[in-house]
Amino acid sequence: MKEIIDATDAIIRTVATCVCGSDLWDYRGINPVEQPTPFGHEYVGIVEEVGDEVKAIKPGQFVVGSFFASDNTCANCRNGYQSNCLHREFVGAEGCQAERLRVPLADGTLVATPEVPDEKFVPSLLACSDVMGTGWYAAVAAQVRSGDTVVVVGDGAVGLCAVNAAKELGATRIIAMSRHESRQKLAREFGATDIVAERGDEGVARVKEMTGGVGADRVLECVGNSESMQQALRSTRPGGNVGFVGVPHDVAFDGQELFFSHVGLRGGPAPVREFLPDLINRVLSGRIDPGRVFDLELPLSEVAEGYRAMDERRAVKVLLRP
After folding, report:
1. What is the CATH architecture assignment of 135-267?
2. How many Cα atoms within 13 Å fall on the side-chain side of residue 36?
3. What SS3 state is found at 291?
């Protein structure tokens, strides 16, 4: 049973949650997990209770929240980096793959929809709590703008949402790097104009060939390993930018190569809260439908099968319902 601990908390009844690709780092043992640990950091739900200092969020509201709790008032929040809030807390610390969750700093973390949404919007609103917000940040960090040629490295849920974001921000050519037919199909439906199946040096060479030997204006790195980062940097034209949102594992840079490439680099944990009002409006207006990345839905009681399906690449992303 979840309880109010701080006066700024809210208790949420989970309507939907999911398994994240980043959860697989722990599931596979790449990140050591030495004791029973709650998991999950993506959520939408109905507010059941709020602390005495919560003023904007009310019981009965349907809310979408970020994986980092933020006050949304500190200097970093005001600069648009709520994931670096001076008082941030990781919402997933208590696990969002649960029937209820406690959200700290509720007024600064949660965004309520105008009314309880139609069921058809729930998957896309859930996607906004992380993967769509993270894909959007990749595009914002890379400074995608109208007329750009954009490469997206990674065809998981974040990469697919990054394709969608690049399209929404005005890119005219979007090259999705993917080897999987079903993911290629969704990438095209989200806005990709080209598909590159090659990886590593071959992938870079193919991008250079497609861009007159120069490279892409913007590259969105959505994986987080050394190969994907090198592929992203080397696929970018001089003066272009890489937006990286894949959680880095064993990633290192050659300082000399980066220096002489004239490629800009920005990324980190996405400040999802900054983008939520806009993304929610786009979902409810029917402009975007990022919930299509969920290709398997299971009851929360079968969460273990959800992890297996994503680990074995039988699913892009698994939606869970209590």
Report:
1. 3-Layer(aba) Sandwich (3.40)
2. 0
3. helix
Of the CATH numbers 3.90.180.10, 3.40.50.720, 3.40.980.10, 3.40.50.880, which one belongs to the domain with range 10-130+271-321? 3.90.180.10
Q: What is the pLDDT of residue 236?
A: 98
- The CATH 3.40.50.720 portion of the chain extends over 135-267
pTM: 0.96
Give counts: helices (H), strands (E), the chain: 12, 15
Structure tokens, 7 = 């006066």
* Residue 253, pLDDT score: 83
Q: Tell me the mean pLDDT per 10 residues along the chain, length 322.
A: 95 97 89 88 98 98 97 98 97 93 98 98 98 98 98 97 98 97 97 97 97 98 94 98 93 90 97 98 98 98 97 96 97
The one-letter amino acid code at 79 reads: N
